[in-house]
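Much of our argument rests on the idea that a fold can be written as discrete symbols. This step matters because it turns folding into a mapping between discrete strings. The record that follows shows the chain in one-letter code together with its fold in token form.
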Amino acid sequence: MEFWFFRGCMSTFREREITEATLEILERLEVVFHLFERETCCGSVLFRTGLREEAERVRRKNEEEFSKLGVRRLLTACPGCYSTFREYSLSGVEVLHLVHLLHRMLREGKLRLKEKRMRVTYHDPCHLGREWGIYEEPREILRSIPGLELVEMPLSREFSRCCGAGGGVRSAFKELSSAVSRSRIGDALDSGAQILVTSCPFCYHHLKEAAGGKMEVKDLSLLVRDLMEG
């Protein structure tokens, strides 16, 4: 199975460790993948802030590039990119988020994770959860870690609180965005978890900033990379 890995803007310019962790995971799982030589933004923020003309220009550019390269499977670790590419309705292209691939590898016995005694809670990114109903896959991955205790926040799954960063809110309404993220950290602390895990570069960046050292925040890619056997 062969993939083209789309890194996304946040994981390229702000949270590079997510890209580095994902690449290491793919290599250790012996997944055949390619990288785009010059990656164009997926256009997610443009679409969601009403800049339709610019967003359409980006969409056309990406579709032309995918067609030229013969892309058949597109993999990303960013829910915003994942959702946007799904909304493109790309003909003949399967779009997957990293959690799909990890979940598949877990079920096939190719992904094995070492024991780690810790209590974690999981934050559902809006684009993965409410938009595409991806709730169980990341939780199954977490539960596969021996010694890990997964606790749920009262507001989780389809009722999850947003991290506050998506849809252009962080850029346009900084105070509101910060207030929402602080509330989410409060939810996580109240759960009794030691670590807040998510599967989104935007959520990871924003919640880590809001936590201010009060609790550890990790992207699932980082946790899996650190605990992989072999």
Observations:
- The mean pLDDT is 95.
- Strands lie at 2-6, 32-35, 73-76, 94-97, 118-122, 148-150, 195-198, 216-219.
